[in-house]
Amino acid sequence: MLAGTAALTTMRALPAWAQAKGGTLTVGLTYEIDTMNPYSTGFLGDAQAAVIEGLIAPDGEAKYVPVLATEVPAIENGGIVVSDDGKTMQITYKLREGVKWHDGTPFTSADVKYTWEAVKDPAFIAESKDGSSEVEGIDTPDELTVIVNYNTILPTFAATLFTFGIMPKHLLEGTDLNTSTYNETPVGTGPFKVNEFVRGQYVETVRNDDYWKTAENGDKLPYLDSIIFKMIPDTNTLITQLKSGEVNMVVSTPYSQASQVQGIEGIEIIQGPQLSWQHLDFNFKRPSLADLNVRKAIAMGIDRNVIIKAQGGFPKAIKSPVVPVFDFYDDSTPVLAFDVAAANAMLDEAGYVAGGDGIREKDGERLSYAFMVQAGRADDELAQQVIIAQLKAIGIEATANNQTGVAYREARYNGGYDLIYGRWITSANPVYHDFWGTGGANNGQSYSNPDLDAAMAEFESTLDPAERKVAASKFQAILAEDLPTISLVNNVALIAKPVALKNFIPNPTNMTNFVDTAAWYVE
């Protein structure tokens, strides 16, 4: 998954030995944080991950490790017990002793149960409630034991509810989570506390001096004084501030600007793998885009190699949303090859006739589309221009209609576009029905396919790896044939960081690079 150039560095984990505390890390984010509640946000929870902890979390190798729990539940260690009829399961978490919320209140099993109750509450507007409806009930026999009773088999349990964060019952019970101050200044158990949230500008976090974790050498963690997350949606401005020293870390350095970053004194670029891919999606409310012939023609009209070359050769061509690192990736998934002549022939045969301006139409509908990417993302805007030019060659007009921040998020979720290009990044155990399942949390396309729903349900309802692989092959084939989305390239992360920042390990999952910041230190 790593794109290789000699000028870039690969980080390795280094143990911290008697490191001095201190230092402020100023991180530039390419989006505006909508909320600090990890269950409500429509973006990656970078700042949230430094403040709020879950029971387990994925590490730099996309393997789950214990955080507030003492071990990751598994069948082998007795943490997962499947019912005799094979239809339900029970998961037991043992919690760490001595963990405190940022206000000094002890963390207990009651907080875990409250989190489930709060997320599943219909009144709470969440980005995703995955993992909540599958829970029949939670038992808390003591303050450090949580027994979760599932009404089904849920192999993706680690990617959902209790991984994204636990919420404090003593502060939130009886409040409206949609309007709570928790959404701006959450109280967590993490290594950093929110000091200030200025909407549209920054989130300042400061060291939690009462953090539960210690380093291998016994040092009290965390080492850093503060992490500040600045919201800078325009990537040109972001790189300018990196050069000036106003920010000193960027976890999403644009491919096209990597060469500029390499010359900045005291900054290095780390390559990190990502469970992430770029995709072009269609709004099925447009009659022409609901026509498979048009979607196939668009797929044949796009040359991935041009997009990759324009982006410095970093991303890799992909034909499935299942990135190749997963063992359930199916290399036999079909893909429509770049073929302009075949695309034009398909549209001709389907009755889409070019007008005087070269744009095709049928039954009074011109193949002219509002095409959205997130404004300010240099890589996405560059890819958008490539795709616009390529679609013109097959008689399709695409006009940039880009939005920033929350406006982009709302359009993405509500189908406020014809075509949309962007990126998804998954957990180490993905829940794919969110993207294309009927009524899926991220399905703003109005797409529905019962066969796809069934295949994804098979994938997400068995613990057997062989059965999951078969089901994954089914849904990959259906996506390739019905084309609600065109998977284009697999991303890598180009992370600009201070050379002096040590113990940083890139995290390839949607839990972000900030899921384990406690041991970071400035040399």
From TrEMBL:
It is found in: Periplasm. InterPro entries: Peptide/Ni-bd, SBP_5, SBP_5_dom. Keywords: Signal, Transport. Pfam families: SBP_bac_5 (PF00496). Gene3D superfamilies: Dipeptide-binding Protein, Domain 3, Periplasmic binding protein-like II. Residues 63-443 form the Solute-binding protein family domain. The keyword Transport applies. The keyword Flavoprotein does not apply. It comes from the Bacteria. Belongs to the bacterial solute-binding protein 5 family. It comes from Devosia psychrophila. PANTHER family: OLIGOPEPTIDE-BINDING PROTEIN APPA, PERIPLASMIC BINDING COMPONENT OF ABC TRANSPORTER. This is ABC transporter substrate-binding protein.
